[in-house]
Amino acid sequence: MKGIAMPLTVTGRFDDGSAYHVQVTGDADRPVTGSRRAAALVALHRGEAIPLSPTGPLRRVSRNDQAAILALLQRHTNVLEVMHGAGGLAQMGKNDHDRRRSRRRQDTSHPASPPFPP
């Protein structure tokens, strides 16, 4: 996944609850734009080995490696969504599935839809 041509747009929250919305550009001069705090996080962990997925390979965080920067953001923040360029939703946050499930259980304002006609 190294060298993705289109920038990634990442939305998430830091541990203290503050939100961010950044572009991971893949450019060595400005790897992350839109949040100084996210850019500082990338600079702080540059050169550190990070897994690209829970069981995936380790890769060193470099300024022009979008996949490693995304993995870094996923590890140190709560990433809510990732969009490729102007494309659609690529990933939900790690807690979104459980939140949706509990919201469905609590929401009784809409009756269940009737079964399909025969």
Overview in brief:
With 118 residues, the chain is an alpha+beta fold.
Structure, explained:
Mean pLDDT is 79; it is low at 87-107. By secondary structure, the protein is an alpha+beta fold. It is globular. The protein has three helices and seven strands, in the order E-E-E-H-E-E-H-E-E-H. The longest helix is centred in the middle third of the chain and has 11 residues, at 66-76. Helix content is 27%, strand content 26%. The protein has one domain.
What is the helix tally? 3
How many structural domains can be distinguished in the coordinates? 1
Order of helices and strands: EEEHEEHEEH
Mean pLDDT: 79
Query: Which stretches are low in confidence, meaning pLDDT under 50 for 5 or more residues running?
Result: 87-107
Number of strands: 7
User: What portion of the residues fall into strands of 2 or more residues?
Assistant: 25-35%
- Characterize the main sheet: 5 strands, antiparallel
| CA radius of gyration | 18 Å
Helical content, roughly? 25-40%
